[in-house]
Amino acid sequence: MSNDYSKMKFGTKAIHAGVEPDPTTGAIMTPIYQTSTFVQESPGVHKGYAYARGKNPTRAVLEKSIAALEDAKFGLCFSSGMGAMDAVIKMLRPGDEVITGNDLYGGSYRMFSKVFANFGIKFHYIDLTEASNINNYINANTKLIWIETPTNPTMQIVDIKACAEISKKHNLLLAVDNTFATPYLQNPLALGADIVMHSVTKYIGGHSDVIMGALVTNDEQIHAELAFIHNSCGATPGPMDSFLVLRGIKTLHLRMEKHCYNGEKIAHYLSNHPAIEKIYWPGFEDHPNYNIAKRQMRGFGGMISIVLKGKNLEQTFKTASSFQVISLAESLGGVESLVNHPATMTHASIPKQTREAAGVVDNMLRLSIGVEDVEDLLADLEEALKH
Length: 387
Fold this sequence. Notes:
Number of domains: 2
Strand content: 5-15%
Shape: globular
Radius of gyration: 21 Å
CATH class of the largest domain: Alpha Beta
């Protein structure tokens, strides 16, 4: 197989990119190198591997694979998505400022506001649905723009290309959390981003059995700095998890096609349902920035958020607990469908007033639509929404 992955179609890259037969046995799947250290011929002379925190052969193949999916030169895998984010923010110094969105994953907000704010880094949480808003917050201390698109959980669409033009004009870094879209639907580096982050736990792994994060970039200096932090701070994943993600990636394109198909069917069903007050899904023509989503994405994904009509917190809990096929759980992007109550689960760390200002109200539920038969999911929704 040619090593010029850029010429491959996505499905071929998902199966082959970065993966070569094992040179010892010819095994078609990369072995699990379950070892902490590697024998050296003499001090400092080895076959590219010395200690597994710094580099492991199974993880190295995975990093090449994920980089290839984003058409990137460099990839790094971390022990979680938060570990990947942590490394990016550690590129900053006390007094530096970050511009980010007002609709963030709760864990991202918690890290920014409760951890790094204590080290003198200032965060501006703003409306990014109009990229030009960024200009109002740029000053001499601004170093990074951090965006999610689509956002979690109100599916806001942020114009990556417009943000990149602003970041380059002011010599800022632009990092994009691409977890909801995946490389199958969206490639931020091609739109001008400097760093792309994934919670690999979600769609890339795809089977709810791994916690992992990843960063990719085309910039050699950025990669070198992130690799130094990666090794120095130690948020590195083990070989078994790396193997599982390599296996998951081989069906990413197939799964995403089904996630998108089911998501569209269910979004249109819910849009006409009498129990639903509001629905967030970027594939509707009246969704804010729909035209941007259509331009920068290849599909609209399987994430949907709904606001239940006239229900209080207790009634919303009852609905959330009434599903039979769809499971009530945190996380997203697995083959199984999940329902989540953001206000008390994924976004509980965000103050209530801030949360509700972003639309994360007590009667909101977030759906991660899996790859089951859509008829079963529709029947499950119909029954649960009666409660």
